[in-house]
Amino acid sequence: QSFGTPASYLVLEKLEQHEHEAVFVGGAVRDYILGKRATDIDIATSAEPNEVKKIFSNTVDVGIAHGTVLVVLDQEPIEVTTFRTEGTYSDARRPDEVQFVKSLREDLLRRDFTFNALAMTKDGKLIDLFGGQEDLKHKIIRAVGVPEERFHEDALRMMRALRFAAVLDFNLESATFEAICNQAERLENVSVERIKMEMDKLFLGSNPMAAFQLFKETGLHKAVPLYPEKMLGVESALPFASVKEGWAFFLVAGGYSASALSQAYKLSNEEKRFIAEVETAYAIRKERPFTVDELYIYDVPVLEAAEKFYRARAMDRSFASFPQFKEEKNKLPIQSPRDLQVNGKDLLKWADVKGGRWTGEWMKRIEAAVLHGRCENDPNKIREWFMNDFNSKK
Ligand code: ATP
Ligand code: MG
Question: Which parts of the sequence bind CTP (predicted)?
Answer without folding.
Answer: 27, 30, 111, 154, 157, 160, 163
